[in-house]
Design the sequence.
């Protein structure tokens, strides 16, 4: 099967180089405000597993394309704010129908931390994330080297942003554990073929200890799923599809109530 992740990363590199020319870092560096919302503490497990609700309108795994209005994004953000400890916003446009503008709208309509979920492969994007108001960013271990992860962690820290470093394999986990990452996301979806297996969290979480927080991502649809992965030292779950498939109906709030 075609390696979807490799294709996405290749296109992302071209996109970033184009953005560097259109909007050089020097043109906006002085407008970057440091985050004032603590993502790591917001998702740290207390009495129960925390919910990170995701704003997601499209995916290579689903043949759908929704272009939301500003009002719809505002309404979703306000609804998420009632039930989630943090909100994830996909900003990749080509493959996931996202936009940095969506993140800006969400942040203005919430008081919980906002995670920028994209394919970050260049330091430029970390600064860009600060400009659009992200409180945390996603880093994918399989597409980055150890030195790159540490460099991005350092830049993010200088902007008071956290990093959710995503792993899917034992090799990914070993790589991340050699960095200064404080939050590891275990993606139950294989980004190369889009297949999902919740046991990915169960197996990989055992290799993580200490003060590192663990987030289970992808494939979580019900409270039962949360309870299942919760047996693996998980602090939070990141859920998008099962919430967003209720977009435009009362079912969205019911699903949020169930999962939170």
Sequence:
């Amino acid at each position: 099967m075609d390696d979807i992740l490799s294709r996405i990363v290749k296109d992302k590199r071209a996109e970033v180089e184009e953005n560097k020319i259109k909007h050089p870092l020097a043109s906006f560096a002085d407008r970057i405000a440091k985050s004032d919302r603590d993502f790591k503490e917001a998702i740290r497990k207390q009495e129960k597993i925390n919910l990170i609700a995701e704003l997601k309108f499209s995916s290579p795994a689903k043949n759908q394309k929704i272009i939301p209005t500003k009002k719809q994004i505002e309404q979703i953000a306000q609804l998420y704010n009632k039930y989630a400890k943090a909100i994830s916003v996909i900003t990749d446009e080509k493959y996931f129908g996202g936009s940095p503008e969506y993140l800006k709208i969400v942040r203005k309509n919430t008081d919980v931390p906002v995670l920028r979920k994209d394919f970050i492969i260049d330091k430029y994007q970390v600064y860009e994330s600060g400009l659009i108001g992200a409180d945390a960013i996603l880093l994918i271990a399989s597409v980055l080297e150890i030195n790159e992860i540490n460099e991005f962690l350092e830049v993010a820290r200088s902007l008071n942003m956290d990093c959710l470093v995503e792993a899917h394999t034992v090799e990914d986990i070993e790589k991340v554990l050699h960095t200064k990452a404080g939050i590891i996301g275990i993606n139950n979806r294989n980004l190369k073929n889009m297949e999902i297996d919740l046991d990915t969290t169960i197996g990989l979480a055992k290799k993580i200890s200490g003060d590192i927080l663990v987030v289970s991502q992808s494939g979580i649809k019900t409270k039962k799923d949360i309870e299942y992965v919760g047996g693996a030292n998980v602090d939070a779950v990141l859920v998008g599809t099962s919430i967003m498939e209720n977009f435009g109906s009362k079912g969205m709030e019911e699903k949020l109530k169930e999962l939170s």
